[in-house]
């Protein structure tokens, strides 16, 4: 049985780390190394993990962001395999056993699994369930369209992470550093997929703070795309990257309207119109901007229910 190093980056999540650790300690796969990387927390994290002190490795560092925290964990990991778990997410007790058996049987060098969202989004039960395409094999082009890989579901060979340079530690890419890494790995290595909801992703995606960050998310997506253009990957063409930029802005524009953030939608549309060359699409977006919010919500729900939606 091969050792799996479980890396948990933590920043001021003392109130949630307990149940996260419990989901790791209850794994039926027992050959584990549990590494918690404290990314400069100012709460009582140490007190919260004391009951399991002899079962974990706790590393302290100054606040550098979750990408840097995960890289710190990878550097000290003793296992040949690495599994990532964010401190507010959870695993099914069978998660690692099922995934490691799958990796052994298929020969894949990294894999992800279906991920349940808690609390459930009003339109979405599973992470990436907007994506209806293939989730295993050579999925780089599909991944460029939309990110359907939840970080807390990934198990990957440590050697792959080292070969590609790990997560970006650029703070400007915070919350996008995982997607940027998956794009780099996917261009080189096919991925496996376990269609079993073994990971539970917690999200507050409907709160005002995140809704108001859409402009920041668009900026970060632009940074990822610019980096991708400079990388020596034939998989990602200029036209494919351009289409990703357009789709990402379009999705955020529609979701801002859906949430009732009309002024934010107006700002996004200004940026979108600089790239969108199709006149009919630009006119359609202008019409959308002036449709009542309640009507857009109804149409959005029907569209999501009956059509294959390309998500963000």
Structure description:
It is a single chain. The chain has 312 residues and is of the alpha/beta class. The chain has 13 helices and nine strands. Strands 1, 2, 3, 4, 5, 6, 7, 8 and 9 form a nine-stranded mixed beta sheet that branches. Helix 9 packs antiparallel against helix 10 (238-259), helix 10 packs antiparallel against helix 11 (262-275) and helix 11 (262-275) packs antiparallel against helix 12 (279-289). It starts with a strand and ends in a 6-residue tail after the last helix.
What is the topology?
Layout: E1 4-10, H1 14-25, E2 32-39, H2 45-49, E3 57-61, H3 66-76, E4 81-84, E5 90-91, H4 95-106, E6 110-121, E7 124-126, H5 140-145, E8 155-157, H6 158-164, H7 177-186, E9 192-202, H8 208-211, H9 214-230, H10 238-259, H11 262-275, H12 279-289, H13 293-306
Parallel strand pairs: 1-2, 1-4, 2-3, 6-9
Antiparallel strand pairs: 4-8, 5-9, 6-7, 6-8
Helix pairs in contact: 9-10, 10-11, 11-12
Could you tell me the number of beta strands? Answer: 9
Average of pLDDT:
90
Order of helices and strands: EHEHEHEEHEEHEHHEHHHHHH
Percent in strands: 15-25%
Residue runs with pLDDT of under 50 for 5 or more positions: 205-209, 308-312
Q: State the secondary-structure class.
A: alpha/beta
Total helices: the number is 13
Major beta sheet summary: 9 strands, mixed
Helix content: 40-55%
Head-to-tail CA distance between termini: 37 Å
Global shape: globular
Radius of gyration: 20 Å
List keywords for this structure.
312 residues, alpha/beta, nine-stranded mixed β-sheet, globular
